[in-house]
Amino acid sequence: MRTIGVCLAILVGLVITINAVFMVASPRAWFRLPSWLGAWGSLSKYKHATGPGAIEVRLTGAIMLGAVGWILYDMLLRR
Questions:
Q1: Which of 4, 38, 54, 79 is a plausible cystine mate for 27, CB 3.0–4.6 Å?
Q2: Are 32 and 18 a contacting pair, CB within 8 Å?
Q3: Rounded Cα gap, residues 4 and 10, in angstroms
Q4: Domain limits at 32?
Q5: Residue 8 lies inside a defined structural domain of this protein
Q6: What's the pLDDT tens digit per position in 37-71?
Q7: Pair 57, 23: CB distance under 8 Å
């Protein structure tokens, strides 16, 4: 059971990291990700791919990357 949990945690972490990198790099490219990978939720390409909406998407991606980095730091280096 522990192995399955670790594998699922790694999978979720990878999906979050991929989404966050695309969100920071290019919100337009993030909306072009396949639906099974992109975590768009209620965001729409028309409101959030450019302009002020893109800034929100980029900030959210940066926060997500920060959270993943914090978790990795705590797991790997803080022991």
A1: 54
A2: no
A3: 10
A4: 26-79
A5: no
A6: 888 888 888 888 888 999 999 999 999 999 999 98
A7: yes
